[in-house]
Amino acid sequence: MIEIRSATFVVSNTDVSKCPQDGLPEYAFIGRSNVGKSSLINMLTGRKGLAMTSATPGKTLLINHFLINRQWYIVDLPGYGYAQRGRRVQEQIRRIIESYVLHRGQMTCLFVLIDSRHSPQAIDLEFIEWLGENAVPFALVFTKADKLKPGALKANVQTYLLHLEGQWEELPPSFITSAETRRGREELLEFIAGINKQVSENQLK
Ligand code: GTP
Ligand code: MG
Fold first, then answer.
1. Which ligand is nearest to the CA of 82?
2. Given ligand 1 and candidates 12, 30, 32, 34, which is best to mutate, with the most ligand atoms within 8 Å of its CB?
3. What is the pLDDT of residues 8-62, one digit of tens each?
4. How far apart are CA 84 and CA 73, in angstroms?
5. Threshold 0.85, pTM exceeds
6. Distance 186 CA to ligand 2 centre (A)
7. What's the rounded Cα separation, in Å, for the pair 96 and 78?
8. How far is the CA of 51 from the centre of ligand 1 (A)?
9. Are strands 107-115 and 63-68 parallel, antiparallel or unpaired?
């Protein structure tokens, strides 16, 4: 398991071309506004105030880089689908997300966060489909697991995966998490450690 020895904010950007160019492996977190991206990042790193969280949706508006153990990055992305933001800002955010996801070569896995309380939502399903079309490596992270009873949680996650199974030959990796109880932390860090290892082995070749 990865021990988080250091986690530091590096830079915020609106433009993927201005992001760090050191080639370190990076893991980005995306999903609807308010799904719990920033909270999850704080839970994973064990640093409460690292990524800014808020009960009001639309808090994160930039591409935020955090350097972990001086070896890899966590990236906090703006949420999609927050209608109250107004069309111009929404369009701006859509462009930031799109250029990051399609052009960030060192992004090794995109974690797509899904609120475990809801049935599959069109906006998330469309986003996932778009990732598939563009061959973007991703994993699913069900958030806010503490807000549901175990039976309901299990049923919701199963419904979601069943829905995807109808469309995909292979299901993406998936994780159940809670920023409150820290559920899923070890599994996610383990998964990241595995990819980091692959990346460094490939660099030696
Ligand atoms: P934007 O940056 O606005 O797109 O939102 P975000 O996806 O970064 O969400 P954020 O982490 O700011 O969390 C949104 C709200 O959900 C906050 O009030 C959090 O306290 C709450 N929240 C996030 N994760 C959890 C969780 O696992 N359990 C519970 N109970 N609440 C959570
Ligand atoms: Mg946020």
1. 1
2. 34
3. 999 999 889 999 999 999 999 999 989 999 999 999 999 999 988 877 776 677 8
4. 30
5. yes
6. 21
7. 8
8. 11
9. unpaired
Burial classification of residue 148, based on how many CB atoms lie within 10 Å of its CB (0-12 exposed, 13-18 middle, 19 or more buried):
middle
Structural domains for the chain: 7-199 (3.40.50.300)
Task: List the structure tokens of 143.
Answer: 């958030």
Burial of 151 by CB count in 10 Å (0-12 exposed, 13-18 middle, 19+ buried)?
exposed
CB-based burial label for 13 (10 Å; 0-12, 13-18, 19+): middle
pLDDT digits over 67-126, tens only? Answer: 999 999 999 998 888 767 788 888 888 999 999 999 999 999 999 999 999 999 999 999
102 in helix, strand or coil? helix
The Cα 57–Cα 35 span in angstroms is 9
Q: Indicate the helix (H) or strand (E) that contains 143.
A: strand 138-143
Residue 162, exposed/middle/buried by CB under 10 A (0-12, 13-18, 19+)?
exposed
Give the largest CA-CA distance in the chain.
49
